[in-house]
Amino acid sequence: MRLIALIVLAPAVALGATVVKTIDAPDTAISGLAYGSGSLWAADGNTSWIYELDPEGGTVLSSFRFTQGTPSGLAIWGNTLHILNAESGTYHGYVYKYSTSGSYQGYYDSTC
User: Fold this and answer.
1) Which of its termini does the chain have fewer beta carbons within 10 Å around, N or C?
2) DSSP characters over the chain
3) Tell me, which fold does domain 27-109 have in CATH?
């Protein structure tokens, strides 16, 4: 399924940017993408799996299960993944920190 480029780049394409590459999504409900530590990271909102992808070809390099709920967003800072678990219909949720190897490192409140 080639959803990653369409979801992420659709607004940019509307502004005149061009798609330079598409890769197959590793799962069916990608709810977050981040690039860092040389890899593309994807979170799946249905299965709660976090995938590390080779940005060149989309090969899954590693994966781990997010056990604190349903991931609804993803960011990376250094070697730490920040995975958002927002409460549906609210401005409240938690951001959980994981190492890029999948080790849980704590959380913080993300009230907006």
Assistant:
1) C
2) ---HHHHHHHHHHHTT---------SSS-EEEEEEETTEEEEEETTT-EEEEE-TTT--EEEEEE--SS---EEEEETTEEEEEEEPTTSS-EEEEEEETTS-EEEEEE---
3) Thrombin, subunit H (2.40.10)
